């Protein structure tokens, strides 16, 4: 695998940038693999990478119906944080943050992880109580989170309006996770793809899975695809908003609903916004990309759909909130918006688990907030597939919890999970 370094860059620059290798191969599928992963988003690619690097399983194919990273991974607003309320979630998301902290070095690929801090604003007494509860719970779990007064929020994020006289939703304070931040979404998919490919994993794009075959004992035997049948001893489904559709191919119903979630960016401007700010109550969040665009996120549409675009009223509502919180952005122009399909569970926590079909595993239900978990999710899902047993971190994230009542109810805890 070609190495990226300052020296390599200088050498290639002097040679007219000739000789860079493609980042990954474009192989034709083999007749069969030990493991087939359905979905080449960040989670699927990370799973393949850790299967190869941690478990030595390299006879793996990642099948993608479009282009790798073209799903929610390439559409998200890249907020990374781990200040979730419940112990199970804190364990999972902080496992991911710890992996993020060394990921560029691990992959030899700059994923531009920037721990610029995620500030969550409180606008009413309920918010204050809820965020203070989060701060205490997080600290007990060894996750950093601190309470800031409104003035301290303003010091941390100078563009923020805290003038209560001008606001429908005054800022009463905020919870700040300094280790939170953002990363470059495409680079995460590309870095994992490159790392997995170098270890022998076949990444096959433009290859939609159209069926899942099971033998007489119920165990999976392979997948039907637009490139023909591919045999597989084990199958990992990591298809985000399409998970229900794919699992239906194996005859399994999932506790998931798929919703459009959208985001938008402004015209690029000079660096002005130093952190990530989220407001769950008025449902808007904002950061600034390294290109200079303000990256703005909204809530999901209220109805289920597989369209990769959201309703206009959601965007205008979000921009109302952004203009109130940051009046200096009122005259900015928005450049483009887009949507993704997010798969939402009843308790807004993911499923990373074995299924009732032997050899079939599923990683889904990340809803509006799975990008932040990409390295941790891939790491524990690879463990689950390789050993046919969950890693202690993902053991609570079963499908059966919806039958047995052991919910991890982040929906009730935070109302939003970006
Ligand atoms: C607008 C928006 C903003 C978001 N903001 C944030 C955020 O700030 N922070 C955060 O943590 N998360 C955020 N998320 C959520 C995050 O993007 C997802 O949880 C995460 O990217 C899911 O990754 P994935 O690899 O599971 O899915 P994806 O990247 O969607 O990958 C799944 C892949 O499966 C493929 N696939 C589906 N069906 C088939 C089939 N039949 N055959 C072959 N391939 C198939 C798809 O084409 C897709 O590429 C946001 C999402 C959206 C849409």
Description of the molecule:
One of its GO terms (molecular function) is nucleotide binding. One of its GO terms (biological process) is tetrahydrofolate metabolic process. It is a single chain. α3 (87-101) crosses α10 (374-387). The chain has 418 residues and is an alpha/beta fold. The radius of gyration is 21 Å and the shape is globular. The chain has helices at residues 6-14, 42-55, 87-101, 103-107, 125-140, 150-156, 185-198, 243-248, 312-325, 374-387, 401-404, 410-414; strands at 32-38, 60-63, 79-80, 118-122, 146-148, 173-177, 181-182, 202-204, 209-214, 220-225, 228-237, 257-266, 276-279, 284-288, 294-300, 334-344, 351-354, 360-364. The structure holds flavin-adenine dinucleotide. Flavin-adenine dinucleotide binds next to α2, β12 and β16.
Which ligands does the model contain, each kind named once? flavin-adenine dinucleotide
Radius of gyration: 21 Å
**Which structural class do you get from the secondary structure elements?**
alpha/beta
The total count of strands amounts to: 18
Mean pLDDT: 95
Low-confidence stretches: none
Helicity, in percent?
25-40%
Alpha-carbon distance between the two ends: 34 Å
Shape: globular
Give the SSE string.
Answer: HEHEEHHEHEHEEHEEEEHEEEEHEEEHHH
The major β-sheet equals:
8 strands, mixed
Number of helices: 12
Percentage of residues in strands: 15-25%
